[in-house]
């Protein structure tokens, strides 16, 4: 028995060492690498299972399941590039370089779009449900969280009504985000004729234990003509009906024009990953009545060759000349983003970060106190929203570039989640974002270095420990 136990002990230690080598080669950040290597060598019994679930930052198989060549895949979809090419938009000379965003997105800015800013849940879902009622051919719908509460039941009924009218409905939900969604809810949709699937990150053998990946995108597309995306999920809390968060502050965007097709492309790539099916869709853009906005749809995720969401944020900070304002519910940026924030503030850029006062994740709340003092000293202004829970993911650069999407300012959005962001290069829309954020700032309190320095030692230790766990938050 003793020799057997010794053999098992030696085998586990060896497995921990081998896994540590994989972590050393594969983990993207030095912070994560050190944490995993130390844990795997010192505590292999715990470290190896944890690494199998939380360790990797690359989502294997997604691109190969889609196609080896993206152009071939998009040709397979029947995308009429000759119909879209007239709406590809050259960069205005007066603007700073936006080319990097296009390279990260593998998509171009398009012109002849219209964008509508939707503030908070009532306006957002009223507009989406109106769009669903007007669908003629198909609906594509994807949310990270769907609950079978009052709002979820309204969505279900709209989708079932659409099927009864002869509209094709394709629904994706994340298996982890929507873990509490009942079988009855899904069965009722399927029985009505809705094609409904979960985005399960553990689908292939390469990702068998990778439960740490999430599809955090929220996309609705109607007939390839109109698309919605942003921070809202489907749940009563997004209407301010959660007793813990009686006011829920969030932002969505409605897109009309060629940009809606780019959102459709993001959805269909996810759909193809899950189902290996490519539905017949419309790929000819419908030009809206007020087609003045340049828009880029930038999907990001752990299958990308670069850390797309992090690089998007860093580039926005580097091109800012006058200001960059950022609103995010989860603010645990990596070192590259922190350095870009400091540098922007040192250059004299007006850098403002808006985060919630009341957190729904204590690890993320504690983590912020480990690095906020450093960016405050550089001149970054950090504010905590007081009116309710802030969940919007928005940024504004100078007077022309704004973004609404699903990506938070944390490691999960930068490296583990599939996200999507709409970048709008338009001064009129930027003014709407400015007015919205100014109103948010009026309901916020500034953070000060003295406040952080006055925290007790135990709190500082906890916040630093929490920040060290950022790679798996």
Describe this structure in words.
InterPro entries: Cardiolipin_synthase (IPR022924), CLS_N (IPR027379), PLD-like_dom (IPR025202), PLipase_D/transphosphatidylase (IPR001736). This is Cardiolipin synthase. With about 475 residues, the protein is α/β, with parallel strands linked by helices. It folds into three domains: about 55 residues, no CATH class; about 220 residues, Endonuclease Chain A (Endonuclease, Chain A, 2-Layer Sandwich), CATH 3.30.870; about 160 residues, Endonuclease Chain A (Endonuclease, Chain A), CATH 3.30.870.10. It is built from 19 helices and 20 strands. The protein has a 16-stranded mixed β-sheet that branches. It has a two-stranded parallel sheet with strand order 8-15. A hairpin with a 3-residue loop joins strand 6 and strand 7. Helix 2 packs antiparallel against helix 3. The longest helix is centred in the N-terminal third of the chain and has 25 residues. The protein is globular and about 70 Å long. The chain starts with a helix and ends in a 5-residue tail after the last helix. About 50% of the residues are buried.
């Amino acid at each position: 028995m003793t020799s057997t136990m010794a053999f098992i002990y030696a085998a586990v230690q060896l497995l921990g060492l081998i896994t540590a080598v994989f972590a050393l080669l594969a983990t993207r950040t030095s912070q994560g690498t050190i944490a995993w290597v130390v844990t795997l060598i010192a505590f292999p019994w715990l470290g190896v299972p944890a690494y199998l679930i939380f360790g990797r930052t690359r989502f294997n198989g997604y691109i190969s399941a889609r196609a080896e060549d993206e152009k071939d895949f998009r040709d397979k979809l029947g995308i009429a590039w000759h119909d879209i090419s007239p709406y590809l938009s050259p960069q205005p000379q007066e603007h700073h370089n936006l080319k990097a965003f296009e390279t990260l997105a593998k998509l171009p800015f398009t012109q002849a779009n219209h964008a509508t800013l939707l503030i908070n849940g009532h306006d957002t879902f009223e507009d989406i449900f109106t769009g669903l009622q007007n669908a003629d051919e198909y609906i594509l719908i994807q949310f990270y969280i769907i609950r079978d509460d009052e709002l979820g039941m309204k969505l279900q009924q709209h989708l079932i009504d659409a099927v009864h009218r002869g509209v094709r409905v394709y629904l994706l939900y994340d298996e982890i985000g929507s873990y509490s969604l009942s079988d009855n809810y899904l069965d009722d949709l399927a029985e009505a004729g809705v094609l409904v699937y979960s985005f399960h990150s553990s689908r292939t053998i390469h990702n068998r234990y990778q439960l740490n990946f999430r599809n955090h995108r929220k996309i609705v597309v109607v007939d390839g003509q109109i698309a919605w995306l942003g921070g809202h999920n489907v749940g009563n809390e997004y209407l301010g009906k959660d007793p813990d968060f009686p006011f829920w502050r969030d932002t969505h965007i409605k897109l009309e024009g060629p940009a809606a097709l780019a959102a459709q492309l993001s959805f269909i790539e996810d759909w193809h990953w899950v189902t290996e099916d490519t539905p017949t869709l419309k790929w000819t853009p419908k030009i809206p009545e007020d087609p003045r906005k340049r828009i880029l749809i930038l999907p990001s995720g752990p299958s990308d060759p670069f850390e797309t969401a992090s690089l998007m944020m860093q580039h926005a900070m580097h091109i800012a000349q006058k200001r960059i304002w950022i609103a995010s519910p989860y603010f645990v940026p990596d070192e590259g983003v922190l350095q870009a924030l400091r540098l922007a503030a040192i250059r004299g850029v007006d850098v403002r970060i808006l985060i919630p006062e009341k957190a729904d994740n204590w690890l993320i709340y504690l983590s912020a106190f480990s690095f906020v003092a450093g960016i405050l000293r550089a001149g970054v202004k950090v504010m905590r929203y007081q009116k309710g829970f802030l969940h919007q993911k928005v940024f504004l650069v100078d007077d022309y570039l704004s973004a609404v999407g699903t990506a938070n300012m944390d490691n999960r959005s930068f490296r583990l989640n599939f996200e999507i962001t709409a970048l709008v290069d338009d001064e009129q829309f930027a003014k709407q974002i400015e007015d919205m954020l100014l109103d948010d700032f009026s309901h916020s309190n500034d953070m000060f270095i003295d406040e952080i320095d006055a925290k007790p030692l135990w709190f500082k230790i906890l916040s630093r420990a929490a920040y060290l766990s950022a790679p798996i938050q």
